[in-house]
Amino acid sequence: MSKLSGLGGRLYRGETSVNFIGRRRRWYTVSAVFILLSIGALAVQGLHLGIEFKGGSSFTVTTQNPSVTEARAAVEEAGVSGEAIIQVLGDNKVRVQTGALETAQNNAVQDALAAKFSVDVASIDTQIIGPSWGKEITRKALYGLFGFLLVVMIYLAMALEPKMALAAIVAVIHDVFITVGIYALVGFDVTPATIIGFLTILGYSLYDTVVVFDKVRENTKSITSSSTKTYSQAVNLAVNQTIVRSTNTSIVALLPVASILFVGAGLLGAGTLKDLSLALFIGLIVGTYSSIFIAPPVLAQLREKEPAMMALSKRVNARGGVSSEASSTPAAAVNGRGPRNQPKRKGRK
Questions:
Q1: Cβ contacts of residue 115 below 8 Å, gap of 6+?
Q2: I need a surface site. Which of 91, 108, 219, 334 has the fewest CB within 10 A?
Q3: Which domains does the chain have, with CATH numbers?
Protein backbone atom coordinates (compact mmCIF):
# COMPACT_ATOMS: atom_id res chain seq x y z
CA MET A 1 0.00 0.00 0.00
CA SER A 2 2.86 2.35 0.80
CA LYS A 3 4.34 1.74 -2.63
CA LEU A 4 1.00 2.53 -4.31
CA SER A 5 0.52 5.69 -2.28
CA GLY A 6 4.09 6.68 -3.03
CA LEU A 7 3.50 6.11 -6.74
CA GLY A 8 0.38 8.27 -6.62
CA GLY A 9 2.34 11.07 -4.98
CA ARG A 10 5.10 10.87 -7.58
CA LEU A 11 2.57 10.91 -10.40
CA TYR A 12 0.83 13.94 -8.92
CA ARG A 13 4.07 15.88 -8.45
CA GLY A 14 5.31 14.94 -11.91
CA GLU A 15 8.32 13.01 -10.64
CA THR A 16 7.03 10.00 -12.57
CA SER A 17 4.98 10.42 -15.72
CA VAL A 18 3.24 7.94 -18.03
CA ASN A 19 2.83 9.35 -21.50
CA PHE A 20 -0.89 8.84 -22.14
CA ILE A 21 -1.21 11.64 -24.70
CA GLY A 22 1.89 10.85 -26.74
CA ARG A 23 0.78 7.24 -27.14
CA ARG A 24 -2.75 8.07 -28.19
CA ARG A 25 -2.48 6.08 -31.42
CA ARG A 26 -2.16 2.90 -29.36
CA TRP A 27 -5.29 3.69 -27.38
CA TYR A 28 -7.17 4.62 -30.55
CA THR A 29 -6.15 1.31 -32.09
CA VAL A 30 -7.43 -0.65 -29.09
CA SER A 31 -10.75 1.21 -29.24
CA ALA A 32 -10.99 0.68 -32.99
CA VAL A 33 -10.62 -3.08 -32.51
CA PHE A 34 -13.44 -3.18 -29.96
CA ILE A 35 -15.63 -0.95 -32.13
CA LEU A 36 -15.12 -3.26 -35.11
CA LEU A 37 -16.00 -6.25 -32.94
CA SER A 38 -19.13 -4.40 -31.82
CA ILE A 39 -20.12 -3.67 -35.41
CA GLY A 40 -19.61 -7.33 -36.26
CA ALA A 41 -21.71 -8.49 -33.32
CA LEU A 42 -24.51 -6.07 -34.18
CA ALA A 43 -24.42 -7.06 -37.86
CA VAL A 44 -24.37 -10.82 -37.26
CA GLN A 45 -26.45 -11.28 -34.11
CA GLY A 46 -28.11 -7.93 -33.55
CA LEU A 47 -29.76 -6.91 -30.31
CA HIS A 48 -32.23 -9.27 -28.66
CA LEU A 49 -35.05 -6.88 -27.86
CA GLY A 50 -37.33 -7.77 -25.00
CA ILE A 51 -41.08 -7.86 -25.35
CA GLU A 52 -41.23 -4.38 -23.83
CA PHE A 53 -39.84 -3.06 -27.13
CA LYS A 54 -41.13 -5.45 -29.78
CA GLY A 55 -44.37 -6.56 -28.13
CA GLY A 56 -45.44 -10.07 -27.14
CA SER A 57 -46.72 -12.17 -24.27
CA SER A 58 -45.02 -13.12 -21.01
CA PHE A 59 -46.08 -16.01 -18.74
CA THR A 60 -44.50 -16.46 -15.31
CA VAL A 61 -45.24 -19.72 -13.50
CA THR A 62 -44.52 -20.25 -9.81
CA THR A 63 -43.68 -23.90 -9.23
CA GLN A 64 -41.54 -26.10 -7.03
CA ASN A 65 -39.82 -27.66 -10.04
CA PRO A 66 -39.09 -24.98 -12.66
CA SER A 67 -37.80 -26.49 -15.89
CA VAL A 68 -36.94 -24.92 -19.22
CA THR A 69 -37.54 -28.23 -21.02
CA GLU A 70 -41.01 -28.68 -19.56
CA ALA A 71 -41.96 -25.08 -20.32
CA ARG A 72 -40.78 -25.41 -23.93
CA ALA A 73 -42.77 -28.59 -24.32
CA ALA A 74 -45.89 -26.82 -23.02
CA VAL A 75 -45.46 -24.01 -25.57
CA GLU A 76 -45.09 -26.54 -28.38
CA GLU A 77 -48.20 -28.40 -27.21
CA ALA A 78 -50.13 -25.11 -27.34
CA GLY A 79 -49.26 -24.86 -31.04
CA VAL A 80 -47.32 -21.61 -30.79
CA SER A 81 -44.85 -21.16 -33.63
CA GLY A 82 -41.67 -19.11 -33.40
CA GLU A 83 -38.82 -19.13 -30.95
CA ALA A 84 -39.86 -18.65 -27.33
CA ILE A 85 -37.51 -17.19 -24.71
CA ILE A 86 -37.65 -19.30 -21.55
CA GLN A 87 -35.80 -18.46 -18.33
CA VAL A 88 -35.71 -19.91 -14.83
CA LEU A 89 -36.02 -17.13 -12.24
CA GLY A 90 -34.67 -18.05 -8.84
CA ASP A 91 -35.63 -21.42 -7.40
CA ASN A 92 -39.37 -21.47 -7.99
CA LYS A 93 -40.25 -19.51 -11.11
CA VAL A 94 -40.03 -20.03 -14.86
CA ARG A 95 -40.81 -17.30 -17.39
CA VAL A 96 -41.92 -17.84 -20.97
CA GLN A 97 -41.81 -14.98 -23.47
CA THR A 98 -43.32 -15.29 -26.93
CA GLY A 99 -44.20 -13.03 -29.82
CA ALA A 100 -47.60 -11.39 -30.23
CA LEU A 101 -50.37 -13.99 -29.78
CA GLU A 102 -54.10 -14.09 -30.36
CA THR A 103 -56.44 -14.44 -27.40
CA ALA A 104 -57.02 -18.13 -28.13
CA GLN A 105 -53.28 -18.78 -28.31
CA ASN A 106 -52.70 -16.98 -25.00
CA ASN A 107 -55.33 -19.15 -23.33
CA ALA A 108 -53.84 -22.30 -24.87
CA VAL A 109 -50.37 -21.46 -23.54
CA GLN A 110 -51.75 -20.78 -20.04
CA ASP A 111 -53.66 -24.07 -20.03
CA ALA A 112 -50.62 -26.01 -21.27
CA LEU A 113 -48.32 -24.45 -18.66
CA ALA A 114 -50.87 -25.06 -15.87
CA ALA A 115 -51.17 -28.72 -16.86
CA LYS A 116 -47.43 -29.23 -17.27
CA PHE A 117 -46.48 -27.75 -13.87
CA SER A 118 -49.66 -28.79 -12.02
CA VAL A 119 -50.66 -25.29 -11.01
CA ASP A 120 -53.85 -23.25 -11.22
CA VAL A 121 -54.29 -21.15 -14.38
CA ALA A 122 -55.16 -18.13 -12.23
CA SER A 123 -51.76 -18.33 -10.51
CA ILE A 124 -49.88 -17.75 -13.79
CA ASP A 125 -48.76 -14.13 -14.11
CA THR A 126 -49.60 -13.16 -17.71
CA GLN A 127 -48.59 -9.91 -19.39
CA ILE A 128 -49.59 -8.96 -22.93
CA ILE A 129 -47.73 -6.09 -24.58
CA GLY A 130 -48.83 -4.83 -27.97
CA PRO A 131 -46.37 -3.83 -30.72
CA SER A 132 -47.56 -0.21 -30.65
CA TRP A 133 -46.74 0.09 -26.95
CA GLY A 134 -43.31 -1.39 -27.62
CA LYS A 135 -42.65 1.20 -30.32
CA GLU A 136 -43.66 3.96 -27.92
CA ILE A 137 -41.20 2.66 -25.30
CA THR A 138 -38.43 2.54 -27.94
CA ARG A 139 -39.16 6.10 -29.04
CA LYS A 140 -39.10 7.39 -25.45
CA ALA A 141 -35.83 5.58 -24.77
CA LEU A 142 -34.18 7.24 -27.79
CA TYR A 143 -35.58 10.62 -26.78
CA GLY A 144 -34.16 10.15 -23.30
CA LEU A 145 -30.72 9.20 -24.65
CA PHE A 146 -30.41 12.09 -27.10
CA GLY A 147 -31.87 14.54 -24.60
CA PHE A 148 -29.33 13.42 -22.02
CA LEU A 149 -26.43 13.91 -24.44
CA LEU A 150 -27.68 17.36 -25.48
CA VAL A 151 -28.13 18.63 -21.91
CA VAL A 152 -24.75 17.26 -20.86
CA MET A 153 -23.00 18.84 -23.82
CA ILE A 154 -24.55 22.26 -23.10
CA TYR A 155 -23.65 22.02 -19.42
CA LEU A 156 -20.05 20.98 -20.07
CA ALA A 157 -19.63 23.74 -22.64
CA MET A 158 -20.78 26.30 -20.08
CA ALA A 159 -19.02 24.83 -17.03
CA LEU A 160 -15.73 23.91 -18.72
CA GLU A 161 -14.93 24.55 -22.39
CA PRO A 162 -16.78 23.77 -25.65
CA LYS A 163 -13.97 21.50 -26.85
CA MET A 164 -13.96 19.68 -23.54
CA ALA A 165 -17.67 19.07 -24.02
CA LEU A 166 -17.03 17.73 -27.53
CA ALA A 167 -14.25 15.41 -26.31
CA ALA A 168 -16.47 14.16 -23.46
CA ILE A 169 -19.33 13.38 -25.86
CA VAL A 170 -16.93 11.48 -28.14
CA ALA A 171 -15.89 9.38 -25.14
CA VAL A 172 -19.52 8.77 -24.15
CA ILE A 173 -20.48 7.63 -27.67
CA HIS A 174 -17.41 5.39 -27.61
CA ASP A 175 -18.62 3.85 -24.32
CA VAL A 176 -22.20 3.27 -25.46
CA PHE A 177 -21.15 1.75 -28.78
CA ILE A 178 -18.77 -0.77 -27.23
CA THR A 179 -21.22 -1.63 -24.43
CA VAL A 180 -24.05 -2.23 -26.91
CA GLY A 181 -21.74 -4.37 -29.07
CA ILE A 182 -20.73 -6.57 -26.13
CA TYR A 183 -24.39 -6.79 -25.13
CA ALA A 184 -25.24 -8.07 -28.61
CA LEU A 185 -22.33 -10.54 -28.46
CA VAL A 186 -23.46 -11.97 -25.11
CA GLY A 187 -27.06 -12.20 -26.32
CA PHE A 188 -28.88 -10.77 -23.30
CA ASP A 189 -32.32 -9.27 -23.84
CA VAL A 190 -32.54 -5.49 -24.07
CA THR A 191 -35.13 -4.40 -21.51
CA PRO A 192 -36.03 -1.08 -19.86
CA ALA A 193 -33.54 -2.07 -17.13
CA THR A 194 -30.85 -2.17 -19.81
CA ILE A 195 -31.68 1.39 -20.88
CA ILE A 196 -31.47 2.49 -17.25
CA GLY A 197 -28.07 0.83 -17.07
CA PHE A 198 -26.88 2.63 -20.20
CA LEU A 199 -27.95 6.01 -18.84
CA THR A 200 -26.24 5.22 -15.54
CA ILE A 201 -22.91 4.39 -17.17
CA LEU A 202 -23.13 7.56 -19.25
CA GLY A 203 -23.38 9.56 -16.07
CA TYR A 204 -20.49 7.70 -14.46
CA SER A 205 -18.28 8.04 -17.53
CA LEU A 206 -18.93 11.77 -17.66
CA TYR A 207 -18.21 12.10 -13.94
CA ASP A 208 -14.80 10.50 -14.38
CA THR A 209 -14.07 12.59 -17.47
CA VAL A 210 -15.08 15.83 -15.76
CA VAL A 211 -12.66 15.07 -12.89
CA VAL A 212 -9.81 14.78 -15.40
CA PHE A 213 -10.88 17.85 -17.39
CA ASP A 214 -11.21 19.98 -14.28
CA LYS A 215 -7.56 19.22 -13.51
CA VAL A 216 -6.67 19.97 -17.12
CA ARG A 217 -8.34 23.37 -16.82
CA GLU A 218 -6.41 24.06 -13.64
CA ASN A 219 -3.10 23.11 -15.26
CA THR A 220 -3.74 25.15 -18.42
CA LYS A 221 -5.30 28.25 -16.88
CA SER A 222 -2.44 30.55 -17.96
CA ILE A 223 -0.43 28.20 -20.12
CA THR A 224 -0.04 30.62 -23.06
CA SER A 225 1.71 33.18 -20.87
CA SER A 226 4.59 30.80 -20.19
CA SER A 227 6.79 28.57 -22.29
CA THR A 228 7.45 25.73 -19.87
CA LYS A 229 5.24 23.03 -21.44
CA THR A 230 2.89 22.47 -24.34
CA TYR A 231 -0.84 21.95 -23.99
CA SER A 232 -0.44 18.19 -24.57
CA GLN A 233 2.17 17.98 -21.82
CA ALA A 234 -0.13 19.84 -19.43
CA VAL A 235 -3.00 17.48 -20.28
CA ASN A 236 -0.74 14.49 -19.78
CA LEU A 237 0.27 15.79 -16.35
CA ALA A 238 -3.42 16.19 -15.41
CA VAL A 239 -4.17 12.59 -16.40
CA ASN A 240 -1.23 11.35 -14.30
CA GLN A 241 -2.45 13.43 -11.36
CA THR A 242 -5.97 11.96 -11.47
CA ILE A 243 -5.38 8.37 -12.61
CA VAL A 244 -5.02 6.96 -9.09
CA ARG A 245 -8.31 8.54 -8.04
CA SER A 246 -10.09 7.31 -11.17
CA THR A 247 -8.78 3.77 -10.72
CA ASN A 248 -9.71 3.58 -7.04
CA THR A 249 -13.19 4.98 -7.68
CA SER A 250 -13.80 2.51 -10.50
CA ILE A 251 -12.70 -0.50 -8.46
CA VAL A 252 -14.96 0.49 -5.57
CA ALA A 253 -17.89 0.98 -7.98
CA LEU A 254 -17.24 -2.34 -9.75
CA LEU A 255 -17.29 -4.47 -6.59
CA PRO A 256 -21.05 -4.19 -5.82
CA VAL A 257 -21.95 -4.39 -9.51
CA ALA A 258 -19.85 -7.55 -9.88
CA SER A 259 -21.57 -9.08 -6.87
CA ILE A 260 -24.98 -8.36 -8.42
CA LEU A 261 -23.93 -9.84 -11.78
CA PHE A 262 -21.99 -12.94 -10.69
CA VAL A 263 -23.65 -13.73 -7.37
CA GLY A 264 -27.16 -12.37 -7.78
CA ALA A 265 -27.77 -13.22 -11.44
CA GLY A 266 -25.26 -16.06 -11.82
CA LEU A 267 -25.35 -18.11 -8.62
CA LEU A 268 -28.74 -17.16 -7.19
CA GLY A 269 -30.50 -17.05 -10.56
CA ALA A 270 -32.05 -13.61 -10.20
CA GLY A 271 -32.62 -13.15 -13.93
CA THR A 272 -34.27 -9.77 -13.52
CA LEU A 273 -30.94 -8.33 -12.33
CA LYS A 274 -28.65 -9.49 -15.11
CA ASP A 275 -29.83 -6.96 -17.70
CA LEU A 276 -29.00 -4.00 -15.47
CA SER A 277 -25.87 -5.46 -13.89
CA LEU A 278 -24.23 -6.49 -17.17
CA ALA A 279 -24.72 -3.03 -18.67
CA LEU A 280 -23.29 -1.44 -15.53
CA PHE A 281 -20.32 -3.82 -15.31
CA ILE A 282 -19.22 -3.36 -18.91
CA GLY A 283 -19.99 0.35 -18.92
CA LEU A 284 -17.98 1.09 -15.78
CA ILE A 285 -14.89 -0.57 -17.24
CA VAL A 286 -15.23 1.08 -20.65
CA GLY A 287 -16.09 4.44 -19.09
CA THR A 288 -12.97 4.40 -16.93
CA TYR A 289 -10.87 3.52 -19.97
CA SER A 290 -12.31 6.31 -22.11
CA SER A 291 -11.91 8.96 -19.40
CA ILE A 292 -8.16 8.27 -19.33
CA PHE A 293 -7.22 7.02 -22.79
CA ILE A 294 -9.79 8.61 -25.14
CA ALA A 295 -11.22 11.91 -23.87
CA PRO A 296 -7.90 13.62 -22.87
CA PRO A 297 -6.08 12.74 -26.13
CA VAL A 298 -9.06 13.93 -28.19
CA LEU A 299 -9.11 17.19 -26.23
CA ALA A 300 -5.36 17.66 -26.71
CA GLN A 301 -5.69 17.11 -30.47
CA LEU A 302 -8.51 19.65 -30.71
CA ARG A 303 -6.69 22.32 -28.71
CA GLU A 304 -3.26 21.81 -30.29
CA LYS A 305 -4.71 22.95 -33.63
CA GLU A 306 -5.44 26.40 -32.25
CA PRO A 307 -2.98 29.13 -33.37
CA ALA A 308 -2.16 30.10 -29.78
CA MET A 309 -1.30 26.51 -28.84
CA MET A 310 0.72 26.01 -32.01
CA ALA A 311 2.74 29.14 -31.17
CA LEU A 312 3.20 27.83 -27.62
CA SER A 313 4.52 24.52 -28.94
CA LYS A 314 7.06 26.35 -31.09
CA ARG A 315 8.27 28.37 -28.11
CA VAL A 316 8.60 25.28 -25.92
CA ASN A 317 10.44 23.37 -28.63
CA ALA A 318 12.73 26.33 -29.23
CA ARG A 319 13.65 26.29 -25.56
CA GLY A 320 14.42 22.60 -25.73
CA GLY A 321 11.13 21.42 -24.24
CA VAL A 322 10.49 17.71 -23.95
CA SER A 323 8.76 16.04 -26.87
CA SER A 324 5.30 14.68 -26.23
CA GLU A 325 6.46 11.32 -27.52
CA ALA A 326 8.55 10.68 -24.41
CA SER A 327 7.13 7.78 -22.49
CA SER A 328 8.41 8.61 -19.03
CA THR A 329 9.84 11.90 -17.87
CA PRO A 330 11.14 13.31 -14.61
CA ALA A 331 9.65 16.37 -12.97
CA ALA A 332 12.11 18.80 -14.54
CA ALA A 333 11.25 17.55 -18.00
CA VAL A 334 7.50 17.79 -17.37
CA ASN A 335 7.94 21.41 -16.34
CA GLY A 336 9.90 22.09 -19.50
CA ARG A 337 13.24 22.69 -17.78
CA GLY A 338 16.30 20.85 -18.97
CA PRO A 339 19.52 20.27 -17.02
CA ARG A 340 21.33 23.44 -16.02
CA ASN A 341 24.47 24.14 -18.06
CA GLN A 342 27.59 24.42 -15.93
CA PRO A 343 30.22 27.06 -16.83
CA LYS A 344 33.11 25.67 -18.72
CA ARG A 345 36.41 25.67 -16.95
CA LYS A 346 39.40 26.86 -18.84
CA GLY A 347 41.99 24.22 -19.38
CA ARG A 348 45.36 24.59 -17.68
CA LYS A 349 48.28 25.33 -19.83
A1: 74
A2: 91
A3: 7-49+133-313 (1.20.1640.10), 56-129 (3.30.70.3400)
